[in-house]
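TICKET #2291
ISSUE: user wants both folds in one file
ATTACHMENT 1:
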Amino acid sequence: WETKTYMDLFGAERGRCEAEERVSAVEDECCVLKGKVEDLEKRNKALEDKLVDMETRSRLNNIRVVGLPEGAEGPDPCSFLENWLADALDMGPLRAPLVLERAHRVGPRRATGDPPRPLIMRFLNYKQKVAVMNAARKKGDIRYKNINVRLYNDLATEVHKQRKQYDTVRAQLRRLGLRHGFRPPTKLLVTYKERTHTFDNVSQENKRNPREILLDNTA
C-alpha cells in the first residue's frame, strides 16, 4: 500500500511539473506574440497615418461647396464656378482667370425638397484655391440668388472625424470670443492674449474649459 501511495504521489508530482512547464511555455509564447502584436499595431498605425496624410495632400487643391442648389452649375460645372466664384466673392480683377481641373456633385441624387448635394471642385493651381478661401473668409456671407452658400476645405474622412471631436471645445471658444482654427491635419490653434497655442490632446481638451487650459499653458 505504501509503495502504491508513493507511486501515486510521484506520478502526481511529475504531472504537476509537466503542467507547470507547459504553462511556462505558453506564457513565454504569449509574451512573444504580445510583442509581435504590439509591433504590428505600431506599423499599422504608421501606415494609417501615412495613408491619411497622402489623402489629405491629394485634396489640398479641393474646395467643398455646400448649399448650392442642384443644377445651378448647369452642364459645365467648371465654367460656371470659375465665373460665379469671382463675382460672388468680390475678387475683383484677377491676374489670371480661375481655372478648375474638375468639379462634381458628391453622392447619389436626392429627392426633391432635400438639401442639395455638396459639390467638390478641384483647382489646377493651389494658390488660386488659397485665394478663393481667403476671399470667402473675408466675404463671410456668400450668396447664389439669395441662397446662402458655404465653402470648406475638402478634408479626408479620418481628418474630418478627428476634427469633429473638438466640436465641444470650439463651441466654448466661440462663446469666449477666442480666435481659433486648425493646423493641418488636426492640431487646434487658439489665440489668447496675442499668443497662439497648439493643442493636440482631444480627450483632455473636451473635458476642461478652454480658459483653464490656456491659463495652464501660459503658466
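ATTACHMENT 2:
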Amino acid sequence: MGFSRTMQTRYQLLMALLFVAAIIYLENQIQRLEAARDKMEHVLATMQLHSLQVPQFRRSDEDLAKSNDQIVIYNRVPKTASTSFVGLAYDLCQRNGYNVIHLNTTRNSPIMSIQDQERFVTNVTSWNAKKPAFYHGHLSYLEFGRFGLPQKPVYINIVRKPLDRLVSYYYFVRWGDDFRPHLRRNKHGDSKTFDDCVEQGEPDCAPEKLWMQVPFFCGHAVECWEPGNRWALEEAKRNLVANYFLVGVTEELEDFVMLLEAALPKFFRGATSLFQQGGKSHLRKTSNKQEPSKETVRKIQRSQIWQMENEFYQFALNQFHHVVRRSLRRVNGELTPLGAQFFYEKIRPR
C-alpha cells in the first residue's frame, strides 16, 4: 500500500512538472510570436510610409503643376535648434527637387514695413521659377490672405522652453558657437554669467527679453510686440492652431522631423535617417554656456512675462503631443509613422 502511494505521489509530481514545463514552453512561444508580430508591424509601417510617397491615381498635368507649386515657410524663432533643422532642408533640396531660400531682413528685424510685407507676399507667390520652395528666416507670422492672393504657404515652426532659449541666446551673443567659432558676436568679451546678469538687474537678462516666441506667432500687430500683452498670447495660440501645419519643440526634434517626412515627403523624404545619422542633430552648440542657478530660475519664473511665454510653450507642447499620439506608434521601443488610416468606398457612378 505504501509503495502504491509513493508511486502515485511521484506520478502527480511528474505531471505537475510536465504541466509547468508546458506552460513555460507556451509562454516562450507566445513571446516569440509577439516579437515576430512587432517586427512585422514595423516592416508594414515602413512600407506604408513609403507607399505615401507614391501616387495611387494617375495625376493630370494640372495636378502635377499644383504639387510643384507648394511653398513652405519656416519663420524660425532664434535659438530653437533652427540652424540644425534648416541644415536638413539644404541637404535634401537637390535630392527631393525643391529650392531653399533664406529671407534676410535688415538688422534681423522680425517685423516688416507694410510695403515690404506686400513685396514679400507677391514675390513668394509669383516666383514660379523657384517653386516648390522652402523659405526660412527670422520673421514674425504674416497672414497671406490679407493681400487678396489665392495661394497660401504652409507654415511650420519650432518652439523651446523660454528660459532655456534666453540663456542660450545670452551666451551665444558673447561666446558664439561651434558652427562658426571665429565669428565675433556683438557682446564678445563680456564674461558676465547669466546669474550675475540677473542678480545685477542688467537689461540683457530682463524678463522682457523672454518675450520672443509669443510675438513670432502673434504677427505684425503692435500688440504682439508689447511684452506681457494678453491679447498677443491668445492670438499666438489661435495662429498656432489655425494657421500652422505643424509646430514642434526643440526638446523632441526627431519626432518633429519624422512627422514632417511622413506628412510632407516632397520636402522631407529621407530627413529622419539623415537626422539620426548625427551629423545634423546637434549641428550648433553655444560655447561656454552655463546653466542658471536655482535662485536665478526662481526669480525669472516669478515674472508675468515668463509665465505667459511658458503658457504658450506648454500650449504648443500639448498640441504637438496630440499630433504625435495620432500619427506615430511605438514598435520595438521606437516611434514609427502610421500609414493611411482611411480608404474610399461606395464610389458612384462606377
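RESOLUTION: both attachments delivered.
EXTRA DETAIL ON ATTACHMENT 2: The beta strands are 71-74, 99-102, 133-136, 154-159, 244-249, 328-331, 334-337.
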